[in-house]
């Protein structure tokens, strides 16, 4: 492996496919052309740290088909309140501007991916 090849691998791993969802931009993403998946999380949440890498993998796999966002509830507590989120992690699924599904708690990649597939 050349130095250039190693750099490509390192740089690819640094690329995040998720967008940051905030109070200011959720409406724009929610009403966009593509379905939206929002992972509501917090840094102190153990189950959130388990789900986070799964969401990142799915964001990469569904890039161009579904917009995947991460919303830190500590910084955007009004987003959590607007959607009745009382526990994290919570994953919200939007299609055509409407909330169509919600998943609470940690789960396997296969379980979460089924929800992604249902949006398409």
User: What structural class should be given to the helix and strand makeup?
Assistant: alpha/beta
Low-confidence segments: 3-14
Rough outline: globular
Strand line-up of the largest beta sheet = 1-3-2-4-5
Distance between the termini: 38 Å
- Radius of gyration, whole Å: 15 Å
Structural description of this entry:
This protein has 120 residues and is an alpha/beta fold. Helix content is 42%, strand content 22%. It is built from five helices and five strands; from the N terminus they run αβαβαβαββα. A five-stranded mixed β-sheet has the order 1-3-2-4-5. Strand 4 and strand 5 form a beta hairpin. Helix 3 packs across helix 5. The radius of gyration is 15 Å and the shape is globular.
Secondary structure blueprint with pairings:
Layout: H1 3-14, E1 19-20, H2 26-30, E2 36-41, H3 46-61, E3 67-72, H4 77-82, E4 90-95, E5 98-104, H5 109-119
Parallel strand pairs: 1-3, 2-3
Antiparallel strand pairs: 2-4, 4-5
Helix pairs in contact: 3-5
Brief synopsis:
The protein is an alpha/beta fold. A hairpin with a 2-residue loop joins strand 4 (90-95) and strand 5 (98-104). It has helices spanning 3-14, 26-30, 46-61, 77-82, 109-119, and strands at 19-20, 36-41, 67-72, 90-95, 98-104.
Name its key features.
single chain; alpha/beta; 5 strands; disordered N terminus
